[in-house]
Amino acid sequence: MRDRALFDLAIDSKLRGCDLVKLKIGTLVTGREIRARAMVTQQKTGRPVQFEITSDARTSVLAWLERRGGSVEDFVFPSRADPNDHLSTRQYARLVDEWVTAIGLRKEEYGTHSLRRTKASLIYKATGNLRAVQILLGHTKIENTVRYLGVDVEDALELAEHTEV
């Protein structure tokens, strides 16, 4: 249950691993429900970033939190070594390695950042909207988003070819 909730939130939130593992229950819940949107301040940039939590992710997170228990001040993903602390980024990386290996992929080619990049890349491919992806990732410069997504001249030309004026 924990791993499913962690995976779903990683994809939906587009957060770096260091921010994902530090999520507090109160960030995700309102009353007895999981929010459709949440906001965190990124450790790396110090800037707030909003993210959506899809229906499937809300279901898996709710199931995990019902099993996990805890208060709004507790971490969503506690450390097994110290229940008052959060899951470490290293342990999160080990879990991702296990998931990748379990589905037959090479762990050398995928990691925690692959999960951050997944939805952002799909949004860009579907819309071509770099600015929207920049906002969702919390990047300060569009150049960072371009580099992050690996957008190249070929991508730009393909978008141009499909745009009629």
From TrEMBL:
<keyword id="KW-0233">DNA recombination</keyword>
<dbReference type="GO" id="GO:0015074">
    <property type="term" value="P:DNA integration"/>
</dbReference>
<feature type="domain" description="Tyr recombinase">
    <location>
        <begin position="1"/>
        <end position="161"/>
    </location>
</feature>
<dbReference type="InterPro" id="IPR013762">
    <property type="entry name" value="Integrase-like_cat_sf"/>
</dbReference>
<protein>
    <submittedName>
        <fullName>Tyrosine-type recombinase/integrase</fullName>
    </submittedName>
</protein>
<dbReference type="GO" id="GO:0006310">
    <property type="term" value="P:DNA recombination"/>
</dbReference>
<dbReference type="InterPro" id="IPR011010">
    <property type="entry name" value="DNA_brk_join_enz"/>
</dbReference>
<dbReference type="Pfam" id="PF00589">
    <property type="entry name" value="Phage_integrase"/>
</dbReference>
<dbReference type="InterPro" id="IPR002104">
    <property type="entry name" value="Integrase_catalytic"/>
</dbReference>
<dbReference type="GO" id="GO:0003677">
    <property type="term" value="F:DNA binding"/>
</dbReference>
